[in-house]
Amino acid sequence: MADFMSGGGYFTRIFSRVVGSSGRVYAFLPDEQLANCAPEEVAGTRAIEHNAAFANVSVLTGPANGFRVPEPLDLIFTAQNYHDLHDKFMRPTDAAVFNKAVFEALKPGGAFVIIDHAAQSGSGLRDTDTLHRIDPASIIREVQAAGFVLEAQSDLLRNPADTHMSMVFDPQIRGHTDQVFLRFRKPLQQRAHRRDP
Fold first, then answer.
1. 2 in Cβ contact with 59 (< 8 Å)
2. E strands of 1-102, at which residues?
3. What strands lie across the sheet with 149-154, from one edge to the other?
4. In a 10 Å sphere around its CB, with 0-12 CB exposed, 13-18 middle and 19+ buried, how is residue 94 labelled?
5. DSSP codes, 88-130
6. Residues 110-131: pLDDT tens digits?
7. φ/ψ of residue 152, rounded to 5
8. What are the Cα distances from residue 13, in Å, to 23, 35, 55, 75, 124?
C-alpha cells in the first residue's frame, strides 16, 4: 500500500504495523512538497527511513504527476492532502493526471481512500489554498473521472458544528474540522470501448 504525502508519518507507522513483515508500505513525498515545505513537515517520514522497526516501509519521492510505485498495490491512502493538489505550492501538479497515475498504480479491485477537510457545499475548489478545504463533490467528480467508482462514504469524521468558513489551522476548529472520508475502488474489469461496426 502507499501513503501519499505522508508528512509526519503518523498513518505510515500505523500501516506498517497493520501489514506486518509480509507487507510493504510506500510513503510518498512529492517533489513539489519537498521544495516548498519546512523540513519539520516531513521529518517524521524521513525518520522512518532510518528506523529498523519500520523495515517494511520504503520512502519514495518524485513529482506528484508522476506518482509511481514499484509494484501494483491494494490500497493508496491520503489524509488531509488531496486539496493540496490544487494549491500554488504544488504546481504544476494536475489532479486529473495524478488521479490517473493512482488508478494505474492499483491492482484491479484496489482502493483509493481519501480523508480531507470539507469546504462549503458547492464551493468547488475555491477554498483549497486559503482555508485548506475542498468541496467533497469536487473530490468525487475528479476521482471518478479517472475511472474509479465511489464505493463508500463514512460520517465518522463529520462535524456538523463546523461552519466551513474558518481555516483548518484556526485554534477554534483545529482538530475538529468537518472531514470527508471516501473510499473509491478500481473496477475489477475495465470497460471495453465500443467499436463501431
1. no
2. 2-4, 25-30, 57-62, 73-79
3. 57-62, 25-30, 2-4, 73-79, 106-117, 179-185, 149-154
4. middle
5. GGGTT--HHHHHHHHHHHEEEEEEEEEEEEB--TT-TTTTTTT
6. 999 999 999 999 999 999 999 9
7. -160, 150
8. 13, 24, 11, 15, 32
Q: What is the pLDDT of residues 132-188, one digit of tens each?
A: 999 999 999 999 999 999 999 999 999 999 999 999 999 999 999 999 999 999 999
The answer to whether 139 touches 182, Cβ cutoff 8 Å, is: yes
pTM of the model as a whole: 0.94
Grid coordinates belonging to 121: 457545499
| Residues in CB range of 100: below 8 A, 6 or more apart | 146, 147
Return the C-alpha cell found at 21: 513483515
CA of 175: how far to CAs of 145, 157, 182, in Å?
31, 10, 19
Rounded Cα distance, 87 and 90, in Å: 6
